[in-house]
């Protein structure tokens, strides 16, 4: 088992990639702290993990709130004694709003969840990782964090921010036994389209141009396997970088 005895915290673990990551990590021997704004769904994923003999807890967390982030990491330590792996996965879309039509509300809401959330969890986790001189951070970014028109302006900028944070943390803490990497998934079948409540017509048209060259839509489990690689010793020499997982979409 690749994560035997490790304590892993996963945000946005009630659905999609976060759920698959939490389930795979538990199968690989990790004690998993599943967090999400949707506690009911998180509890049901935790129950499934426990039914299969895994160790897991659910914590209700809005990653956009500092007090929730404190509660998340404190709960992990109270229950399992430490943390070894942090997966920043929770994220929302932005209705493809282009820059000219952006409101401060959209920009701030998307940044709060997609960029400020990972910064806060990372900040808190680093206080533990630097003390024990080990720890791994895996950020779920996006192809939209590497290229310009996979989503609206706020989502694109927020995911670029995550990739910048990944590089900064990866390099600056490398000497302290800490690694930080990101995954840039292409299109993956999840529930994230539920956050696309009213797509902006101009933004939608501008983002759809590249969809025809997407080789295929992926499954959450395929992203979980990349997260497992990054969370385990298999990737001991990989740090401060972003792995695309998109069937080759961004290679065109
Ligand atoms: P999903 O909607 O299925 O799962 C996201 C989970 O995050 C949900 O359970 C949701 O309740 C939770 N969440 C949302 N806001 C939260 C908050 N403020 N605090 C805590 N939890 C919150 O979506 P997914 O596709 O699995 O998304 C996971 C990550 O993957 C996101 O960061 C997303 O941007 C990224 N991503 C998705 C795709 C895709 O095509 N699905 C592609 C690239 C990147």
Summarize the structure.
It contains 7 helices and 9 strands. The protein is an alpha/beta fold and 252 residues long. α3 (66-80) packs parallel to α4 (104-132).
Describe this structure in words.
By secondary structure, this protein is α/β, with parallel strands linked by helices. It has one domain: Rossmann fold (3-Layer(aba) Sandwich), CATH 3.40.50. It has helices at 16-27, 39-51, 66-80, 104-132, 153-172, 201-208, 220-231; strands spanning 7-11, 31-36, 55-60, 85-88, 135-140, 178-185, 188-189, 218-219, 242-245. It has a 7-stranded parallel beta sheet with strand order 3-2-1-4-5-6-9, with helices on both faces. Strands 7-8 form a two-stranded parallel sheet. Helix 1 (16-27) packs across helix 7 and helix 4 packs parallel to helix 5 (153-172). The mean pLDDT is 98. The structure holds nicotinamide-adenine-dinucleotide. Nicotinamide-adenine-dinucleotide is lined by residues 11-12, 14-18, 36-38, 61-64, 89-92, 113, 140, 142, 185, 187-188, 190-192.
The description of the largest β-sheet is: 7 strands, parallel
Briefly, what CATH class?
A: Alpha Beta
Which structural class should the secondary elements be placed in? alpha/beta
| Cα gyration radius (Å) | 17 Å
Task: List the bound ligands.
Answer: nicotinamide-adenine-dinucleotide
The low-confidence runs, each spanning 5 or more residues with pLDDT under 50, are: none
Strand residues, percent? 15-25%
Q: What is the helix fraction of residues, given as a range?
A: 40-55%
Compressed to H and E, one letter per element, the order equals EHEHEHEHEHEEHEHE
Count of helical regions: 7
Number of strands: 9
CATH topology (fold) name: Rossmann fold
> How are the strands ordered across the major sheet?
3-2-1-4-5-6-9
Distance between the termini: 36 Å
Count of separate structural domains: 1
Q: Find the CATH superfamily.
A: NAD(P)-binding Rossmann-like Domain
Q: What is the averaged pLDDT score?
A: 98
Shape: globular
């Amino acid at each position: 088992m690749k994560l035997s005895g490790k304590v892993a915290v996963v945000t946005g673990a009630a659905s999609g990639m976060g759920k698959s990551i939490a389930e795979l990590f538990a199968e690989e021997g990790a004690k998993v702290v599943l967090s999400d704004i949707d506690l009911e769904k998180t509890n049901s994923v935790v129950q499934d993990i426990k039914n299969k003999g895994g160790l897991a807890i659910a914590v209700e967390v809005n990653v956009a709130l500092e007090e929730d982030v404190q509660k998340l990491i404190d709960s992990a330590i109270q229950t399992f004694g430490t943390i070894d792996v942090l997966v920043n996965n929770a994220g929302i879309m932005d209705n493809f709003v282009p820059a000219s039509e952006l409101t401060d509300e959209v920009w701030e809401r998307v940044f709060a969840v997609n960029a400020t959330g990972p910064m806060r969890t990372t900040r808190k986790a680093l206080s533990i990782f630097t003390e024990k001189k080990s720890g791994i951070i895996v950020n779920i970014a996006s192809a939209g964090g590497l290229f310009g028109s996979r989503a609206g302006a706020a989502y694109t900028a927020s995911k670029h921010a995550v990739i910048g944070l990944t590089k900064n943390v990866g390099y600056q803490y490398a000497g302290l036994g800490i690694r930080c990497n990101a995954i840039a998934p292409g299109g993956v079948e999840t529930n994230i389209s539920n956050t696309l409540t009213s797509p902006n017509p101009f933004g939608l048209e501008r983002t759809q141009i590249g969809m025809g060259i997407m080789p295929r839509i992926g499954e959450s489990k395929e992203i979980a396997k990349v997260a497992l690689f990054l969370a385990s010793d298999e990737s001991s020499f990989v740090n401060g970088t972003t792995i695309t997982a998109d069937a080759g979409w961004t290679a065109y």
